[in-house]
Amino acid sequence: MPAKTLRHALPAEEGSIIYLGDIRRRHERQAPDTHYLLALALGAALAWGSWLVIVFYLPPARLLTYLAFFIPLGVALAATGALVAYVLERGGGPLPHLADVCRHGILCAVVVVANLAVLAGHKWNPIVGVVTLALALIVDFVIHRRSA
């Protein structure tokens, strides 16, 4: 199936073909994802705020209080990690893809929260840390290969 094309009829370039997909991709990557980044920053701020309220006002006694501790912490770490990854990957080069930086933030948050949860259960050891980090790297590699 041929790509959608648009005949461009300027006098100097008569008969040239412009591919619409190229135009869309070029315009999509010119402006950063400011609205999504602002929503991510707002979500991170709300998650950090709720986590701080839980830390100061909810004593850890039952499973539900541990979940109330780890869920906002995971959301806050994921959103903050995505923002940090966006800033680090931007580094003067082309704009990073928001899906990639969100994946990196989520995987970092999963590693931290999983290790803290195991630590809270008094079962943590360095092997657990290495295994969770290795699993996160493998998941990142597999997802990156599928999206490429």
Strand content: 5-15%
> Could you give the order of the helices and strands?
EEHHHHH
Mean pLDDT: 84
* Assembly type: single chain
Structural class: mainly alpha
**Spatial order of the strands forming the largest sheet:** 1-2
**Between the first and last Cα atoms, what is the distance in angstroms?**
22 Å
Number of strands: 2
Approximately how much helix is present in the residues?
over 70%
The description of the largest β-sheet is: 2 strands, antiparallel
Put simply, the count of helices is 5
Describe this structure as you would to a colleague:
This protein has 148 residues and is mostly helical. The chain folds into 2 domains: 1-30, no CATH class; 33-147, no CATH class. 72% of the residues lie in helices and 5% in strands. The protein has helices spanning 20-28, 34-57, 63-90, 98-120, 126-147; strands at 5-8, 16-19. A two-stranded antiparallel ribbon has the order 1-2. Strand 1 (5-8) and strand 2 form a beta hairpin. Helix 3 (63-90) runs antiparallel to helix 4 and helix 4 (98-120) packs antiparallel against helix 5. It is flat, with a radius of gyration of 22 Å. The relative contact order is 0.08.
Task: Offer a quick outline of the entry.
This protein is mainly alpha-helical and 148 residues long. It is built from five helices and two strands.
